[in-house]
Amino acid sequence: MKIILLFIATLFVNPVFAAEQSVTLSVDNMTCALCPITVKKSLKDIEGVSTATVSLDDKTATIVYDDDKTNVSELIEATTFAGYPSRVNAK
Ligand SMILES: [Cu+2]
User: Fold this and answer.
1) Residue 90: its pLDDT value, please?
2) How much is the pLDDT for 19?
3) How far is the CA of 55 from the centre of ligand 1 (A)?
4) Cα angle: 11, vertex 16, 17; to 5 degrees
5) What global pTM score does this model have?
6) What residues pack around ion ligand 1 (CB closer than 5 A)?
7) 8 A C-beta contact, residue 61 and residue 41
């Protein structure tokens, strides 16, 4: 259901539809306890990101963001630039 809503929100690029969105990314290269901290920081530095929850065990990052200020591509870019390439988690 969330995916459908996200899809609809993407179709209508209209400030009225702008709202908090959440996405889970699969993150590569996280090998130790410090990695999730680096990934989290790279995400939290983006304007519009309210929370970033990074799991070393699952190799994922779940981000809540304002789609008026940022988007999934920017989130992916940020972790990738920090050394941790990521992609939208299909699960
Ligand atoms: Cu590490």
Assistant:
1) 79
2) 86
3) 12
4) 40
5) 0.78
6) 32, 34-35
7) no
Distance from the alpha carbon of residue 15 to the mean position of ligand 1, in angstroms? 38
Measured in Å, residue 23 CA sits from the centre of ligand 1 at 23
Compute, in angstroms, the gap from residue 29 CA to the centroid of ligand 1.
8
Task: Flag whether pLDDT at 18 surpasses 90.
Answer: no
Task: State the pairing for strand pair 20-27/86-88.
Answer: antiparallel
State the distance from the centre of ligand 1 to the C-alpha of 56, rounded, in angstroms: 9
Cα–Cα distance measured from residue 30 to residue 69, given in angstroms and rounded to the nearest whole number: 27
* Domain residue ranges in the chain: 2-88
pLDDT tens-digit readout, 51-61: 999 999 999 99
Identify the architecture of domain 2-88 in CATH.
Answer: 2-Layer Sandwich (3.30)
